[in-house]
Amino acid sequence: MKNAAIRSSGDQPRYMNPYLAGALLGLVLFASFFLTGHGLGASGGMSRITTAAVDLVAPEHVDDNFYLGKMAGGSSNPFDHWILWLMLGTALGGLSSGFVSKRVSVEVRRGPRLSVRMRLLFAFGGGALVGFGARLARGCTSGQALSGGAVLSAGSWTFMFAVFGGGYLIAYFVRRLWT
User: What is the rounded CA–CA span in Å between residue 104 and residue 97?
Assistant: First the structure.
């Protein structure tokens, strides 16, 4: 599949200036705190969507489970929460940004030594581990690092150092798949 990124001289994809993107993200975070009283995050929204799916097939399990019951137990609606609107806006904003910059395509990015099947297996397996870890950590990288870091939460700063440290450690073992 062809790469859908905008090409400039030298055949390099053009992306937004990272300093400008960081400043804009800071403004979005400030607006989120100002307008909703909450920071940014996504794992809580995914938990609510998953809980709604479980509630469809096993409502008594949701009602009996303390963790799930807080989101959808009894007459509670798991979709009646601000974080779902945040997730919808994030997805639509990212998709519209991709269309505007002509970087939308269906493809599987992988290294030359990695099959598409293994790449997808690693991606879904890693996503499941990260999702589980995000719930254990009481937030994903956007919730912990951006929102927690912005309010100087020691746990959030510890989390981010662990994320970067873990990333550097695992990169050693998987780097050969990408070169």
Answer: 9
Convert the pLDDT of each residue in 105-137 to its tens digit.
888 988 888 899 999 999 999 989 888 888 887
- The answer to whether 48 and 81 have CB atoms below 8 angstroms apart is yes
- Give the start-to-end residue ranges of the domains of the chain: 1-107, 110-179
Q: Round to whole Å and give the CA distance between 147 and 135.
A: 16
Q: Name the pTM for this structure.
A: 0.67
Structure tokens at 104: 């939308």
Q: How far is it, in rounded angstroms, from Cα 37 to Cα 31?
A: 9
Structure tokens belonging to residue 31: 């607006």
User: Smallest Cα–Cα separation from 78: which of 68, 87, 66, 64?
Assistant: 68
